[in-house]
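Per-record layout

source: Enterocloster clostridioformis
name: Glycine reductase complex component b gamma subunit
length: 271
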Amino acid sequence: MDNNSKKPSIKNVDYATPASKRGIDMLLAKYHKQNFETEVPAKPFQEILMPNLKKELEKARIALVTDGGLVPKGNPDNLNPTNSQKFCMYSLGGSEMLLSKDYEVSHQGYNTEYIEQDPNRLLPIDAMRRAEREGIIGRLFDIFYTTAGVMTSVENGTALGERIAVSLRDCDVDAVVLSSTCGTSTRCGALIGKEIERLGIPVIQVTNLTKIAESVGVSRILRGNDICHVFGDPKLSLKEERTYRWHMVGKALDLLKIEIAPNYTDSIISE
């Protein structure tokens, strides 16, 4: 039997030519601005109406969500470090900050040592508590949502987002700050964010890979410092880093104040 008969039927693909050569030929054609046909056509992401905050920020309940795999020590719910098909919810217990002795990371898409040294570099609890104390936000929701977004398919990322969105809505959350890490994890985070926004809850996605988030279409995007520590900078002293994180959170919350006009579909990106 001809081995090619077992290949998936994709229009205009010459399977007699090795995949490596086909890939290089397409790359060269693109470089020389010549026409070529991709073998993996991407389905466009669905546009949704971009929601605005329905109440004053000073009265809003803000939740934190991450695709960066932060879990309590011991990973009690066995969150898979790749292609996770579930999310976990953990109480903050009213804590003023996250302590390294209490948390670890289940995620194989980035160097996790910086987050394990200081989990606030992924979930900025210390800065959000300060915003709460100073009356900038109404309340920090005392539960955070976490999954490991690396290598997660579009279908699974969307399904995760649908379930997280319903939970947030049922908990009367008004807005979400969503922190993201590596490439496919950022895509997963953006898919989660879009499903949250579909239910009318505005999302600020904080990621170093803003183009990926923008391609999915989440409404408000803030460029984070690095895929390994979006809300931190290990080169700074502890005091300087907390100040840096405070300013980052301020930028994220400022994005919530922006009123997006009906039918506007372009992402708003803050550097």
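summary: The chain has one domain: 57-269. Residues 207 and 224 are 5 Å apart (CA to CA).
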